[in-house]
Amino acid sequence: xxxxxxxxxxxxxxxxxxxxxxxxxxxxxxxxxxxxxxxxxxxxxxxxxxxxxxxxxxxxxxxxxxxxxxxxxxxxxxxxxxxxxxxxxxxxxxxxxxxxxxxxxxxxxxxxxxxxxxxxxxxxxxxxxxxxxxxxxxx
Length: 139
Ligand code: THU
Known about the structure:
Blueprint: H1 5-16, E1 26-34, E2 39-43, H2 56-66, E3 72-81, H3 94-103, E4 109-115, E5 118-123, H4 124-127
Parallel strand pairs: 3-4
Antiparallel strand pairs: 1-2, 1-3, 4-5
Bound molecules: tetrahydrodeoxyuridine.
């Protein structure tokens, strides 16, 4: 399917505006595109006890899966410190890569963006080589 990277990055930037980051002050937004063309957005949500914090990517994935979605075409991610524009390419953390591997194919594009005009795309398989996933358990 045709992926509009710029639109997806704009959606991730919008999602980032809702980030709840009183501890790290690092704000992340993600936009997850389903194969049907719907976009689920997520931001990071931190917690005073730290470990219950949730990354933007997992927020988007869990929102989508909890609405019955299982087929994903791409995800865009943007991140930067509070008050700054998208200056840092923010690759997904290891936990988020693993969660992606549960629901997304290894050839799915992950768009790591600084802005709608400045981004790199890598496949999930490139970001998570030799991954352990559902296939290992014959699922
Ligand atoms: N974070 C994300 O939301 N996604 C990433 O890919 C990297 C890290 C969040 C977690 C935490 O709220 C903050 O960024 C600093 O680590």
